[in-house]
Design goal:
The protein is α+β, with helices and mostly antiparallel strands. The chain folds into 2 domains: 1-33; 43-104, no CATH class. Helices cover 39% and strands 16% of the residues. The protein has helices spanning 2-17, 22-25, 83-104, and strands spanning 49-55, 61-67, 78-80. It has a 3-stranded antiparallel β-sheet with strand order 1-2-3, with helices on one face. A hairpin with a 5-residue loop joins strand 1 and strand 2. The model has no long low-confidence stretch (mean pLDDT 81).
């Protein structure tokens, strides 16, 4: 019974110190979990993927994605009308294969 009262007091003291913040309202979420690297995380940063996007002489863009942990999941050479479409498809492909690999327990 004594332990329960101590924990209850601690929880109330944490939420009282929160000052109305959303993380402090729950009581225990007061610590800051900030990373030293504040740059955005992109699909190009996921380990195990080699994303190649390059222009052609005809003004189109080629995309090819190599998957380091399973060559069967690598993409064929794909062609797009502009760089925006090429980057969009590359992101979608990497994220899909990454989800598949996590579901199979490969990564």
């Amino acid at each position: 019974m004594l332990v329960r009262e101590i924990l209850k007091e601690e929880a109330f003291s944490y939420s009282a110190n929160a000052g109305g913040s959303q993380t402090g309202a729950a009581g225990w979420g007061m610590r800051s979990m900030q990373s030293m690297n504040t740059d955005p995380f992109s699909y190009e940063d996921i380990p195990g993927f080699d994303v190649d996007i390059y222009p052609t002489t005809s003004g189109k863009y080629h995309v090819q994605i190599g998957v380091g942990f399973d060559d069967k999941l690598s993409s064929p050479l794909m062609t797009f009308a502009n760089e925006e479409e090429a980057r969009h498809q590359a992101r979608k492909y990497v994220e899909k294969v990454h989800r598949i690999a996590m579901a199979r327990g490969i990564i």
